[in-house]
Specification:
alpha+beta, six-stranded mixed sheet, four-stranded mixed sheet, elongated
Length: 358
C-alpha cells in the first residue's frame, strides 16, 4: 500500500466516529494529500469501502494514470457526478468540509439528494491528520526550506541601496523558480525602512535607503510543500537602538524554540517568546502569533498563539517567528521553519540569524 493509499484509509477509518457514510473533500490541499493531484478542479469522496476522485476532461488522462482510487472524469459539473455516486452507493449521510464547501455546491447537493439523505459539516478532520508529517513529507519540506534559503542568499549579495522593494521581491521570486520551486508559498514580503514595521507589507516602489532596515519574509513551494523564513538586514552600520531591538527579538525566538518538544502546549511556546519581549519592554510591539504549522499549505494547524491548547507532537512542521514593530523606526522579525521532535526541535532553516549589513 502506498503512502497516499494509507492516508485515504486512515481518513476513512474516522467516518464511523463521525457518524457519516462518506466524506466529500474539496480543500485543494487535502485533495492533493489524498491523491497527489495538483490540478485546479478535483473532488474526493471517501467511503468506508472505496474512494472516488472526480475531475474534468482537462485532467482525465493524468488522473487515470496517476490516481489509484476510482476516477470519474465528468463533462458536467463535478458535484453532479458526486450526487450520482452518492445515490448509486446509497451513501445517505455525507460529511463535507465546512470551511471549503462552496455554497453553490452545497445547495446543489442538498437539492439533488433524495429524501433520507443528509449533509453534515465535519470541521478540520483532515487538517488534523495532516499536522503530523511522514518521513517523505519532512524530506519535501526540507528541500523546500533549502531552496528558499539558497534563493535568499543569492539575491542578498546583489541588494544595494536604491533598489526598489518590488525589484527585490521579483528577484527573490525568480531565483526560487530558477532553483526548481513551483512558486512562492505566498506573496514575498520586502519592506524597507519604517515600512518594516508593517508585518505583512506588500512590496512597493519605495527604494531602499542608506542606514535603514530591510525585512524579507519569503517561502518556496517545492513538490507541493511550503517553507517560510524571515530575515532582517541593515544598510550600513546599525545604531544601538536597532541592535538592541534585533537582540531582543532573537532572544525571544531562541526562548520559544527552546520550549518546543513533543507534549508542549502551543500556547506555552508563544508565552515563552512574549515573556522575553516583555522583559525588554516590547510586548506591545509584538502583534501577531509566534508561529504556525505548514506543509501543503503555508498556514496549517497548529497555530502557535496565545490561546492555542494544541499539544505539539513529533513530526509537526511549524514556524517560530516572533517580531517587534516600532512605528517610525521599523520592525524586526526572525523566522525559521522547524520540526518538532520527541525531546526538542530540529531547525530546518540553514540561513544564519545575525543582523546582516549590506
Amino acid at each position: 500500500m502506498t503512502e497516499i493509499e494509507q492516508r485515504r484509509q486512515t481518513a476513512a477509518a474516522r467516518l464511523a466516529d463521525l457518524k457519516i457514510d462518506a466524506l466529500l473533500v474539496s480543500s485543494p490541499a487535502s485533495v492533493r494529500y489524498l491523491t497527489d493531484y495538483s490540478g485546479s478542479n478535483g473532488l474526493v469522496l471517501l467511503s468506508r469501502g472505496e474512494s472516488h476522485f472526480f475531475t474534468d476532461p482537462r485532467y482525465g488522462l493524468e488522473a487515470s494514470q496517476k490516481i489509484t482510487c476510482r476516477v470519474h472524469v465528468a463533462k458536467k459539473p463535478l458535484i453532479d457526478a458526486v450526487i450520482a455516486v452518492l445515490k448509486r452507493k446509497k451513501l445517505k449521510k455525507t460529511g463535507f468540509e465546512s470551511a471549503w464547501m462552496r455554497f453553490e455546491d452545497y445547495s446543489k447537493l442538498k437539492q439533488g439528494l433524495p429524501s433520507g439523505f443528509s449533509l453534515h459539516p465535519i470541521g478540520s478532520v483532515l487538517e488534523e491528520q495532516r499536522m503530523i508529517k511522514s518521513a517523505a513529507e519532512i524530506e519535501r519540506i526540507r528541500n523546500s526550506v533549502n531552496t528558499n534559503s539558497r534563493a535568499f542568499s543569492a539575491v542578498l549579495r546583489q541588494i544595494k541601496p536604491g533598489a526598489r522593494e518590488q525589484e527585490i521581491a521579483a528577484a527573490l521570486d525568480f531565483e526560487m523558480r530558477r532553483l526548481g520551486a513551483e512558486k512562492p508559498s505566498f506573496e514575498t514580503i520586502v519592506a524597507a525602512g519604517d515600512r518594516s514595521a508593517l508585518p505583512h507589507a506588500h512590496p512597493s516602489a519605495r527604494p531602499l535607503g542608506g542606514n535603514e532596515l530591510l525585512l524579507i519574509d519569503m517561502g518556496a513551494t517545492l513538490d507541493g510543500y511550503s517553507s517560510d523564513m524571515t530575515r532582517v538586514a541593515f544598510t550600513g552600520a546599525p545604531p544601538k537602538r536597532i541592535r538592541d531591538l534585533y537582540r531582543a527579538v532573537l532572544e525571544a525566538q531562541l526562548a520559544a524554540m527552546d520550549s518546543v518538544r513533543a507534549g508542549a502546549v502551543a500556547g506555552g511556546v508563544d508565552a515563552a517568546a512574549r515573556k522575553v519581549l516583555k522583559r525588554h519592554g516590547l510586548d506591545r510591539e509584538f502583534i501577531h502569533s509566534t508561529g504556525h504549522g505548514l506543509g501543503l499549505e503555508i498556514h496549517e494547524p497548529p497555530r502557535i498563539g496565545k490561546r492555542s491548547k494544541t499539544k505539539l507532537q513529533a513530526g509537526m512542521a511549524i514556524t517560530i517567528e516572533p517580531g517587534a514593530y516600532v512605528a517610525g523606526l521599523g520592525g524586526v522579525r526572525i523566522e525559521d521553519t522547524i520540526l518538532v521532535t520527541q525531546n526538542g526541535c530540529e531547525v530546518l532553516t540553514p540561513t544564519p540569524k545575525e543582523l546582516v549589513q549590506i
